[in-house]
Amino acid sequence: MRADTSTAGLDITRKLKAHINNVALHHTLFDLPYAFLAALLATDGHPGIWNLVWIALAITSGRAAALAMDNLVDLRFDRQQPRMSYRAMVKGEITPTEAKIFIIVMLGIMVFAVLQLAPICIYLLPVAALPCLIYPYMKRVTGWVHMFLGLAIAMAPAGGWVGVTGEVTPLPLIVLCTAVALWIGAFDAMYGAQDEEFDRAHGLHSLAVSYGARGAFRIASVCHVLCIGLFVLLGFMLGLGALYYVSVFLAGCVLLYQHKIVSPTDFHRVTQAYFMRNSLVPLVMLICTWLDFVMRA
User: Fold this and answer.
1) Which CATH superfamily is domain 15-296 in?
2) How far apart are CA 216 and CA 186, in angstroms?
């Protein structure tokens, strides 16, 4: 009996690890810090701890559902792509049915968390969810698919802002979300350029397929310059302090370094470390902005 219980426990643990692998839980570092940053900016540094808890739960569960759906939609391509061989669904550790159940559970958790925030949030949830729902299919339609990913990620700061204020403050919110969308969209275009041949052979779209890897890199460079410019503009609009601008400078340094170490003809340094290094941008901005509010309190 004990052996059966132990085996069942191990199976559950393996399955849980497989689901975590499938949704790359650590990639939450790309969007959750921006949600917290938005909450800080919208409340002059006082978002409330429970608001942050519910925002974190909503963003994490919603992102998990979206990525699981993305992997499910792309499964037939991922099985043919050697770079995706590590994924849990590709290895058969998760079945499509299990992925669908996981998505439903995560969506339920997200709705519960959103209901704990400002009442307007639940009404705006379908709008926020739309980019996440259509993104997996955009690579079959347009080379600008990366910007749909950027738009999906930008819903995190939008949710953080509206979640603590109950208001859709037009201009600052648009500037912040646009900056975030350009940041992740441009990075995704660079990262995805290594799949140009595979995508072209399978009828998939990307900026690299549409304009070549060099063209994709040029577009990404322009987007990242605009991104930093918008972060500077946001600081002026909200009257933020010196530490915020330090964080923008450091974010720019990270992006510049990322552009320097790869090229359209050399992707050997495009590793998981390269991928995760981009999470330094939102983390640095969140920490510096929080310290700025603390020092001015």
Assistant:
1) UbiA prenyltransferase (1.10.357.140)
2) 8
Mean pLDDT score across all residues of the chain: 90
Angstrom distance (rounded) from CA 176 to CA 103: 28
In angstroms, the CA 87 to CA 113 distance is: 28
The alpha carbon of residue 42 and the mean position of all alpha carbons in its chain are separated, in whole angstroms, by: 20
Residues 6+ apart with CB under 8 A from 9: none
> Rounded to whole angstroms, how far apart are CA atoms 3 and 80?
38
Instruction: Return the sign of the alpha-carbon dihedral for residues 39, 283, 49, 46.
Output: negative
The helix-helix angle for 280-296 and 242-260 (nearest 10°) equals 170
pLDDT tens column, 3-59:
555 555 557 788 888 888 888 888 888 899 999 999 999 999 999 999 999 999 999
Sign, CA dihedral 152-153-156-161, equals negative
Q: Show me where the domains of the chain are located.
A: 15-296
pLDDT (tens digit per residue) in 178-216: 999 999 999 999 989 999 999 999 999 999 999 999 999
Kindly report the pTM of this predicted structure. 0.91
Phi, psi of 263 (to 5 degrees): -145, 165
